[in-house]
Amino acid sequence: MNQVRDTIRAVLPDAQERISWSMPTYWSKRNIIHFAAFKKHIGLYPGDKAIENFGDRLKEYKTSKGAVQLPYDKPFPLPLIAEIAKWCYETGNHH
After folding, report:
1. Which domains does the chain have, with CATH numbers?
2. Do 25 and 34 touch, CB atoms closer than 8 A?
3. pTM of the predicted model, to two decimals?
4. CB under 8 Å to 13, separation ≥6 — which residues?
C-alpha cells in the first residue's frame, strides 16, 4: 500500500490526500484516483476512461469498468500507476 501511495504522491504533489468511499483518495478540486487493499490485491480506481485509455497495458490484470486489480503476488507496476494517476490529473478524468 505504501509503495502505491508514495508513487501517486510523487506525481501528484499538489493533490490532497483524503478518504472518499472509505478509500485513500487523491483530490484536487475533484477526486483524481482512489486505491484500497483487499485480501489478494490492491484495487486501483482511476475511472472508466483511464481503464479504456491504458487498456492495452492493463491486459495482464483483471479490470472492470473503472478499476484494476493489482495482485500481491506480482510486482506492482509502479511506473504505470504513476502514469495513470498523472493522466487522470492532467485530463480531468476522475473516478
Report:
1. 2-91 (3.90.1150.200)
2. yes
3. 0.90
4. none
First to last CA, the chain: 19
Evaluated on CA atoms 80, 85, 90, 95, the torsion sign reads: positive
**Percentage with pLDDT > 70 across the chain:** 97
Place of cell 472509505: 22
Phi and psi based region of residue 21 (left: phi greater than 0; alpha: psi -120 to 50; beta: remaining): left
Residue recorded with cell 487493499: 37
Report strand pairing: 41-45 vs 67-71. Answer: antiparallel
Q: Which amino acid does the sequence have at 55?
A: G
Residue 22's pLDDT band (cuts 50, 70, 90): confident
